[in-house]
Amino acid sequence: MSNLADIILNETRQIIENKAEVCPEITVESEFLVDLPMDSLDLATLIVTLELTTGIDPFRDGFKTFHSIAELIALYEGAAV
Amino acid sequence: MKHIMVTGGSRGLGLGIVIHLLNQGYKVSTCSRNKTTAVDDLVNNNEHVKWFQCEVGNAEQTATFVKSACEWAEVPLWGLINNAGIAKEGVLATFPNVESDALLQVNLNGALYFAREVLRVFLRQNTAGRIINISSIIGSRGYTGLAAYSASKAGLDGLTRALARENGRRNITVNSIAPGYLDTEMSSTLSDKKRDQIIRRTPMHRLGTVADITPAISFLLSDEAAFITGQTLTIDGGITN
């Protein structure tokens, strides 16, 4: 698994734990708003945190839809190239 | 100590808000296009205030200001006062598009860009926070010759309501304050006739002052106002009754 994938998984887990929610098993197939106890503001927090941590903003030129962890990892890996 | 950002804090109501918040014990960062003697004096005599040059309405400069101000403050950001605004008068039929574009860019987009950057800080901090948009009674009542200004302030009230809904679950409150006619530089262009007419129609029989507005700001920033969000508080001496 790439470094970016690790960061995304860890930050996602951290956001869920900060809400004092029990963190379910997170896999790359997990969908943020379906399988994980996250809402749209949690997703915004994740994106803002990832921008700070990685210096990458895949949404600079407009919003791109994503649902799962794998899709988000792909967006970051694509923008990092 | 809590950090508050005030846009357009170099003169008029903005400067009054900065001074009031300093007196209330806040750390205050402010910005404007140009530095004034008044804000320069303030900064030179108080280590809890810092002025930055920033063109409100410019998204890139807004992001830079918010980042720099947070680094300077060294304490969590607690609030944003979206105060910067411009007013230009003229009937719309002959009002140049370039003027209304510029006005909306500062008054509405400028506030939106600031709210966006500050909300990102609140999310990163994982803290509650406050956003106060300085609107105007013109936004709900309208005024001849102020169509673009009125639209910008009505838009600001809409922004307030939407952001209140969007961010309430993070204990971030968003409210508008809608002053009536204030005795500031912005109203100094009113003719004597118009000024007298406004005073006559105001139940309190005077124009408002900066000191009439600032206590409402410190109240909305306080813990006591934690359950007030999405509201527009009119402070106008009763003229819109």
Which helices and strands occur, and which strands form pairs?
The complex is a heterodimer of chains A (81) and B (241).
Chain A: H1 3-18, H2 32-35, H3 40-54, H4 69-80
Chain B: E1 3-7, H1 12-23, E2 27-32, H2 37-45, E3 49-53, H3 59-73, E4 77-82, H4 97-125, E5 129-134, H5 137-141, H6 147-167, E6 172-179, H7 192-201, H8 210-221, E7 232-235
Parallel strand pairs in B: 1-2, 1-4, 2-3, 4-5, 5-6, 6-7
Short précis:
Chain A is mostly helical and about 80 residues long. Chain A has helices spanning about 5-20, 30-35, 40-55, 70-80.
Strand percentage of chain B: 15-25%
Could you give me the name of the CATH homologous superfamily of chain B? NAD(P)-binding Rossmann-like Domain
How much strand content do the residues of chain A show?
Answer: under 5%
- What is the CATH-assigned architecture of chain B? 3-Layer(aba) Sandwich
Pfam families (chain A): PP-binding (PF00550)
Organism (chain A): Shewanella algicola
Protein name (chain A): Phosphopantetheine-binding protein
Domain Carrier (chain A): 1-80
Folded structure, characterized:
The complex is a heterodimer of chains A (81) and B (241). By secondary structure, chain A is mostly helical. In chain A, 58% of the residues lie in helices and 0% in strands. Chain A contains 4 helices and no strands. The longest helix of chain A is centred in the first third of the chain and has 16 residues, at 3-18. Chain A is globular. Chain B is of the alpha/beta class. Chain B has one domain (3-235): NAD(P)-binding Rossmann-like Domain (Rossmann fold). Chain B contains 8 helices and 7 strands. In chain B, strands 3-2-1-4-5-6-7 form a 7-stranded parallel β-sheet, with helices on both faces. In chain B, α4 (97-125) links the parallel β4 and β5. In chain B, α4 runs parallel beside α6. The longest helix of chain B has 29 residues, at 97-125. Chains A and B meet through α3 of A and α4 of B.
